[in-house]
Amino acid sequence: MSNISNSTPADLNSRVRARAVGQAPSLGDVTDVYDGFGRIYGAAWGPNLHYGYWDDDADRASIETATDRLTDMMIEGLRGQAGQRVLDVGCGIGHPALRLVQKSGVDVIGITVSRLQVAQANELAAGAGLADKATFQFADAMDMPFPDGSFDSAWAFESMWHMPDRAQVLSEISRVMRPGGRLAIADLIERGPVSPQGRKVLDHVCTNYAVKSLGTIEEYRGALLAHGFVDLDIRDVTANCNRTLALMADAVETRRDELSALVGEERAQSLLDFMRLSAVTPEQGYVFLTATRA
Ligand SMILES: C[S@@+](CC[C@H](N)C(=O)[O-])C[C@H]1O[C@@H](n2cnc3c(N)ncnc32)[C@H](O)[C@@H]1O
């Protein structure tokens, strides 16, 4: 487990360094992103560790409103009912799951590969008086420790981009869901055709954020159908969501000293530059989708 408080700057810099293009991230690589510079992003951005959704360019909604709005789209997509059991694949610090519990009355089990997030999420649930409705544990989405058909529904809220094999995760989600259950996914995607400049931006995302490759909408459609999902509603919401990256760069800029202390000034500058570039790179997109387990 990563523990940034016990690490020297040299340790940290090697642990959070960029990886090679196309290399599958290990679980430890993902953990290091979230327990490393991801914590600075989280402190700057807020407890929803995901993008926001804006209706159009004129929409002036705050980051908090826009990120909660995307959570509400996921909640509506699940159509959950009180007493149902929902799996949260890649739960972060549990903020979206608690909103789901409060709005739908479902019970949630969240999984993440950061033990720090597990502790924070369980603490957040206890603080909200929801420890009996929402529990969080360490588990790998590629190989889940749950029996077949043990969940009514599931969501993967901006976690699939880290999965080295998204088809394997969809197969696992399908296995642990009951027939008729609902699935919602929000995720970063690649949109073609990809220009050389677009490829540079996508490669930066992969090498710096523990990602093998971003999926495409076509890959999602094929993998969902192959793993027993029907009733697909797949929406490219890039135009509604990509403002996130520019706003996140502004937010993280306010903590540039912390970021530079962790990853070095040069890499901090590169992370911020690419965030701003990503906001205006059409090849880096965002998908929101729902489906039903056949
Ligand atoms: C961008 S964060 C999203 C967190 C949360 N869903 C939210 O919206 O606030 C991605 C999450 O996916 C988790 N994750 C990445 N790879 C995973 C894996 N193989 N198994 C379980 N969780 C994983 C990370 O630990 C992190 O919690």
From TrEMBL:
Enzyme class: transferase
Single GO MF descriptor: methyltransferase activity
Keywords: Methyltransferase, S-adenosyl-L-methionine, Transferase
Any Gene Ontology biological process: methylation
Domain Polyketide synthase-like methyltransferase positions: 60-282
InterPro entries: Erg6_SMT_methyltransf (IPR050447), MeTfrase_dom (IPR020803), Methyltransf_11 (IPR013216), SAM-dependent_MTases_sf (IPR029063)
Pfam assignment, any one: Methyltransf_11
Assigned EC number: 2.1.1.-
Protein known as: 27-O-demethylrifamycin SV methyltransferase
